[in-house]
């Protein structure tokens, strides 16, 4: 089998296509959640905490104080951007919660199939036609059968 044919067979398998669709949708979903956190939740959290902006929280590694992260970075100073990390943790918690809720709802929709009803007939050993369980004689070939 040639390398190209083997790759083509791999690439068009159903699982690979499903995975690709999931990755693309996941990327778009990540952007939506990031926008929700950055543009909706963080301003509200900032309002509740008295104007606290997590993205602007940092520690300059040279020990100096800078008015903003941009100014520290423009000065070429290394920074620990713990505010960005806090925002990423909030993003993760929200994404994990939304995925949990979605999977929980999908599991509720997947109701277990009811068990099949018990059989009400069995096959005649002579003619293989279906006969009632309590029958002692086949109605098709009149052979004697043991009730099941």
Which key phrases capture this entry?
148 residues, mainly alpha, Non-ribosomal Peptide Synthetase Peptidyl Carrier Protein, Chain A, two-stranded antiparallel ribbon, 4 strands
Q: Would you give an account of this structure?
A:
The strands form two sheets. A two-stranded antiparallel ribbon has the order 1-2. It is elongated, with a radius of gyration of 33 Å. It has helices at 3-11, 14-48, 69-74, 82-109; strands at residues 59-60, 79-80, 121-123, 130-132. It folds into two domains: 3-111, Orthogonal Bundle (Non-ribosomal Peptide Synthetase Peptidyl Carrier Protein, Chain A); 118-148, no CATH class. With 148 residues, it is mostly helical. The longest helix has 35 residues, at 14-48.
Describe the secondary structure blueprint for this structure.
Blueprint: H1 3-11, H2 14-48, E1 59-60, H3 69-74, E2 79-80, H4 82-109, E3 121-123, E4 130-132
Antiparallel strand pairs: 1-2, 3-4
Helix pairs in contact: 2-4
Strand order of the largest sheet: 1-2
Into how many domains do the coordinates divide? 2
Task: Describe the main β-sheet briefly.
Answer: 2 strands, antiparallel
CATH topology tier name of the largest domain? Non-ribosomal Peptide Synthetase Peptidyl Carrier Protein, Chain A
